Amino acid sequence: MFYSRGVCWSSGCEKQGDVSPVENHIHCDEGQPQTEEGSEAACPGISIVTDGFADSAPGDVSGGPASCEGEEHTHLDSQDTHLDSEDAHLDSEHTHLSAEQALDSASGEESQEDSGEFVAAMLARSRLEEQGLGVKGGSPPLADTGPSPPPPGLHRDEDVTADAWRAHRKHVFVLSEAGKPIYSRYGSEEALSSTMGVMMALVSFVQSGDNTIRSVHSDQHTVVFMQQGPLVLVSVSSSGQSEQQLRHELRYVYNQIVSMLTQASIARIFQHKKNYDLRRLLAGSEKILDGLLDLLDCDPSFLLSAVHCMPLASSLRDALSHVLQKAITPNLVFSILIAQGQLVTIVQERTVIEDARLEPADLHLLLNLIGASSAFQAGEIWTPICLPSFNPDCYFYAYISYLDPPSCSVCLLLLSTDKEAFYAVAECKRKIEEAMLAQNALAALAKARPYSATQVGVSDLRHFMYKPFDVPDNHRQLTQFTSPEMESPYSSEAEKTRLLDLYRDLHGRIHSTSRPLKLIYHVAERETLLAWVTSKFELYTCFSPLVTKASSINAITKLLRWIKKEEERLFIRYPPKYSTTPNPSRTRKAPEHDATDNGFLSLL
Amino acid sequence: MAIIRELKVCLLGDTGVGKSSIVCRFVQDHFDHNISPTIGASFLTKTVPCGNELHKFLIWDTAGQERFHSLAPMYYRGSAAAVIVYDITKLDSFQTLKKWVKELKEHGPENIVVAIAGNKNDLGDIREVPMKEAKDFAESIAAIFIETSARNAVNVEELFQKISRQIPPLENPEVDSNESFKLTRQAAPSSRRCC
């Protein structure tokens, strides 16, 4: 439910405005909307953040609520018909807006406030109507936690009118510019077509004023909009994450779609036919998007934009890298070995990474693809795949095969630029398989385990995430982080989520665009956290609640010393390379373990 | 000592008709109720005896989803046989099958052995495609026809046996008079094409 007590439009600023509460027109039967506990009193209600054009500063909204109240009621009455005619409403609303602005320049903010409230009301109303409850039906607000969400796997069949649907922590919708549903995390897209229609109406309404809608903030929810070419992505979240983080997640969703279709072909399709139903092309891939959204919630790699590699004795990792380096064929660009869903090693084509580096984001998409589908467990897979951060418009061809059927925990991924190279690449796999068998590497990999925070030997340290910027070569070529297993008291799903939420909050504050921080010492109810960013690393630590500031700093010193000592095991220190391109003229004749270029450090 | 012949076979057809299930039943004799949609194409092999030869099937199990459609030529090119699968409970999948037949006729290898498999034969009570209609269609294009059930392991082996029998033996290519089985120059080398 979107409480509508005040609306502000701010220009290009992500801060919420300081607005006076306006009476809530939308759910009149619900009684007083509650103020979220602990929320700053300065920013109650809904605020809508857009990209530009409004001259007002965020705090400028000073128009008396009473003066716009009358208008509000009129709007609501005029909306009281059907959603089908929303376009007409929007048009008339727009006309009304300009007229009012022309008439009374002093109340310019007010009119924007009006329109903001109007769109927010539209969104809220449409939800209610869709749920068949109607505005006057006394519906429970979205935030009211009803029955717990249904078990995973049944997302498609979920009843979108049920309380459980509304109670989901985070919804993600993807739609086309024509308002056609493409994807919804929960519930079927068909059932949500009118909700998505309203979302598109919001986007186009703001667009018609030469502006871009970025987000809508209410007490309980943050709605983030992102337009990418002909696609619109919307996140409706009650997770408390920052707008920036939610936008980052939407970008992953977009990139996952691009990885299947390429940006160029999405653009071409919609250029050709504006109301194309993209679900036709994504059919069967919903699981991959579902899997991505699950990972976004539970895997900090996405938050940190870094790769988590499997802790492994450096001798074993080097031996495996060497095996991959030996098994090459022309046009092979990346050889990736994955065990238990984590990166073991990656070998990259030298000339290719001179042009563009393999972003952790792309690697995350690949890992998700493999983890989300059991389709790879049968036979050898050959499939086109696009790496959006590398090049959003072209395909690589991926060879994917598990090396240890039927347990399927060690997966080999070979990427080629040649569509026809399957048999040659499959031959590389045979060589790799043989060499690994000779070294008994599968058995060694099966023994690899995540480590425990207790191994650090610092009492009170429960968990941490460490992302270095100074491990030779690896930040520039492959950004990594390391983190122990989440153990008691964070072994249950709920507690894991709670810890990650705390980390997300710290991360959001560290990376805040308006007021970035370097060091946060946060005493929470059940633990104490310390986040610290320097030019050499980004670190998040979680301690038991009894720790003191001094002892936690002391603990971090010990932790950093331990990580330094274990560096070889925790990280891929020198991402190995090979040359497979037939044209050696562009190849830089560098030694394999080229650690001389640490120039990136000076950039930090 | 039997001769091993490698036969490239591709499976085509609408999404969800059971191509992967048929292959899984044939290769691993296993059935998975919650099988994931194939991504790209999956390559599997199985060797079966046929007369005095051993036929090693190099099976390309393609994804039925539309977005992979443009890749299909890569898989049926050089194939000795194509199995086009439809779902007997979905009329649409039979229409898609006709499109595949047309595409193979236009762009496929000229002497490719075509087999039509009506899968989900165990769901006879919700059948939408009459057996006769499919059989008549198969006859009209001189294709193998069989109804299968990957779930109950019905006719899956038989499907591949029929294909095996339609592949002319190496030593005596003129054995069959039917023109669609005539061994032309490309067939033998292409069917053995592998690494």
From TrEMBL, chain A:
Residues 52-116, 132-158, 575-598 are annotated as: Disordered. Residues 461-567 form the FUZ/MON1/HPS1 third Longin domain. GO terms for biological process: protein targeting to vacuole. Residues 331-432 form the FUZ/MON1/HPS1 second Longin domain. Pfam families: Fuz_longin_1, Fuz_longin_2, Fuz_longin_3. Residues 170-292 form the FUZ/MON1/HPS1 first Longin domain. Residues 70-97 have a biased composition (Basic and acidic residues). It comes from the Eukaryota. PANTHER family: SAND PROTEIN-RELATED, VACUOLAR FUSION PROTEIN MON1 HOMOLOG B. Plays an important role in membrane trafficking through the secretory apparatus. Belongs to the MON1/SAND family. This is Vacuolar fusion protein MON1 homolog.
TrEMBL record, chain B:
Its main location: membrane. It is found in: Cytoplasmic vesicle, Phagosome membrane; Early endosome. The keyword Oxidoreductase does not apply. GO terms for molecular function: GTP binding. PANTHER family: PTHR47978. Belongs to the small GTPase superfamily. Rab family. This is Ras-related protein Rab-31. It comes from Coilia grayii.
